[in-house]
Amino acid sequence: MDSKQLALACRALADNKKAENLVVLDVRKLSTVTDFFVIATGTSEPHLRAIENEVLDGLRREHDLKPVHTEGSAQSHWVVADFFDVIVHIMSADVRAHYDIEGLWADAPRVKPTAPRKRSETVGNIGTTENAPEALKAPKAPKAPKAVKPAKPAKSPKTPKAAPAE
């Protein structure tokens, strides 16, 4: 697996746990330390831990890869996993905004995922009905009827004029 494939695998694994604002930066032309940064945001300590576990366990399980070094923890709101050619940063939003890695490496091109995944391809298909059989899909709401113009009031019948009194 080359470094770009590893970076995209890390991104996909983080996406499995609904990491937010996923970014892969290609720093090959800017750094001799690594080839790619993968940056992901978690919304809470348990979310950060879940993302970290998914990335580390997924790479070990699927590709027999372990990081050379890890630093930080979900409790510190920033976890760094160094896979030598790829460095994964899992951060809370406030820590990410403060350290602004994307700003520091603004000259690095962003790598887009190879193929956008459908919502139904995420773990467990939770909350999706894209590929559900027709019988399981919610019925479509009926169309609203067209507005009906109110009827004009009927004209009152003319009453004959009374004859002049004699």
Strand and helix layout:
Layout: H1 3-16, E1 20-26, E2 36-42, H2 45-63, E3 69-73, E4 78-82, E5 86-92, H3 93-99, H4 101-104
Parallel strand pairs: 2-5
Antiparallel strand pairs: 1-2, 3-4, 4-5
Helix pairs in contact: 1-2
Average pLDDT, rounded to a whole number, is 81
Structural class: alpha+beta
Beta-strand fraction estimate: 15-25%
Read across the widest sheet, the strand sequence of neighbours is 1-2-5-4-3
Instruction: Outline the biggest β-sheet.
Output: 5 strands, mixed
Label the CATH architecture of the domain at 3-107: 2-Layer Sandwich
The unreliable regions are: 118-138
CATH topology (level 3) name of the domain at 3-107: Beta Polymerase, domain 2
* Total of DSSP H or I helical runs spanning 4+ residues: 4
Helix content: 25-40%
Query: Class of the domain at 3-107 in CATH?
Result: Alpha Beta
Q: Report the principal-axis shape.
A: elongated
Please state the CA-atom Rg, rounded to the nearest Å: 31 Å
**Count of individual beta strands:** 5
First CA to last CA: what distance?
Answer: 117 Å
